[in-house]
């Protein structure tokens, strides 16, 4: 038996193609999930070309669907439960998923919205936690128009922080004030007062400028590097009162954090902005839109159209 999946293929235009792969065989602590929706992350585009995911392997990390076989060890959700997961090889019609990597989708949350949460939502939640949030903090979010950025703006605002959202153009700032940003800036133009926390998705010269704005005791979380530019620090830029630049990556199982995020979304406290939605047949279009900075928030694919 086989299922359809988006697999890495460097000869394809977006380095990905639809293919038949073997039906997954779940381990004892895994459920089988029929995936209805999956979201595309900037990291997937890098993974498809970087060699980190082998040629022929299934791409993707974010999936939502329905459990069709419970875990053999008796843990996790029952058959018929709607779930969302952060798991390797998410872009397949059927995926075997560790029970610790998923959360139940609460009533009131659509599967497309749930599918948008894992990588971007967990990165935003954990990087803010790592930086240390608080009501008196000034938080700068770069790449605020994107997946991680929009969630980070909302979560920081909910914690009572003063949130400064940095975007590439005025148009890309749409909706961020409503999401909770106190200031929306193009680049870091006009920002002169120090900030306590930076959630940085852009890297390059913006990371350097953000570092220079960081208050003593503050923290930059280096989440991504969409600019692709090197970061050049002026001599002595890193010498002075202690402040930190911390590398960030999602590690370990995400189920508990996904439960937090899905609950917030179901209660309407975390808005899931979907800027591109379509069939996985149109993966190339979604990938191009994401790379071209035309997606407001997340790109979500519906699975299940014929090859
Ligand atoms: N470390 C981790 O565990 C982890 C987890 C999730 C994501 N990430 C990384 O975080 C980054 C953001 O991910 P995402 O899913 O939020 O991506 P996204 O939805 O594509 O958003 C990225 C944002 O970065 C900005 N951007 C894109 N190209 C740029 C450029 N050349 N110069 C300046 N800004 C640029 C865009 O904002 P404007 O159009 O407004 O400029 C865009 O909205 C990626 O590098 C991703 O790989 C890492």
From TrEMBL:
Q: Where are the transmembrane segments?
A: none
Q: Name the domain of life this protein comes from.
A: Bacteria
**Domain Enoyl reductase (ER): start-end pairs:** 11-301
- UniProt-listed Gene3D superfamilies: Medium-chain alcohol dehydrogenases, catalytic domain (3.90.180.10), NAD(P)-binding Rossmann-like Domain (3.40.50.720)
Pfam families on file: ADH_N, ADH_zinc_N
InterPro entries from the UniProt entry: ADH-like_C, ADH-like_N, ER, GroES-like_sf, NAD(P)-bd_dom_sf, Zn-ADH-like_protein
Q: What is this protein's record name?
A: Zinc-binding dehydrogenase
Per the UniProt entry, what species is this protein from, by scientific name?
A: Streptomyces longisporus
């Amino acid at each position: 038996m086989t299922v359809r999946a988006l697999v890495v293929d460097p000869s394809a235009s977006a380095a990905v193609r639809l293919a038949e792969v073997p039906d997954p065989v779940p381990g004892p602590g895994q459920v089988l999930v029929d995936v209805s929706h999956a979201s595309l992350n900037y990291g997937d585009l890098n993974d498809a070309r970087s060699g980190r995911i082998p040629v022929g392997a299934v791409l993707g990390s974010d999936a939502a669907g329905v459990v069709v076989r419970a875990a053999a060890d008796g843990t996790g959700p029952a058959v018929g439960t709607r779930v969302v997961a952060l798991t390797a090889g998410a872009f397949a019609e059927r995926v075997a998923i560790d029970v610790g990597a998923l959360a139940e989708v609460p009533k009131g949350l659509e599967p497309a919205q749930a599918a948008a949460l894992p990588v971007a939502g967990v990165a935003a939640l954990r990087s803010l936690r790592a930086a240390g949030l608080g009501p008196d903090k000034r938080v700068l979010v770069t790449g605020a128009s994107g997946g991680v950025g929009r969630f980070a703006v909302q979560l920081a605002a909910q914690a009572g922080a003063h949130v400064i959202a940095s975007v590439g153009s005025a148009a890309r700032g749409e909706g961020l004030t409503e999401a909770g940003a106190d200031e929306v800036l193009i680049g870091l133009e006009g920002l002169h007062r120090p900030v306590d926390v930076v959630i940085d998705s852009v890297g390059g010269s913006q990371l350097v400028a953000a570092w220079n704005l960081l208050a003593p005791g503050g923290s930059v979380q280096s989440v991504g590097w969409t600019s692709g530019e090197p970061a050049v620090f002026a001599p002595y830029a890193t010498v002075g009162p202690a402040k930190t630049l911390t590398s960030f990556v999602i590690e370990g199982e995400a189920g508990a954090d996904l439960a937090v995020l899905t609950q917030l979304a179901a209660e309407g406290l975390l808005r899931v902005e979907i800027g591109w939605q379509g069939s996985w047949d149109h993966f190339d279009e979604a990938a191009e839109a994401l790379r071209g900075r035309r997606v407001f928030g997340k790109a979500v694919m519906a699975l299940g159209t014929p090859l």
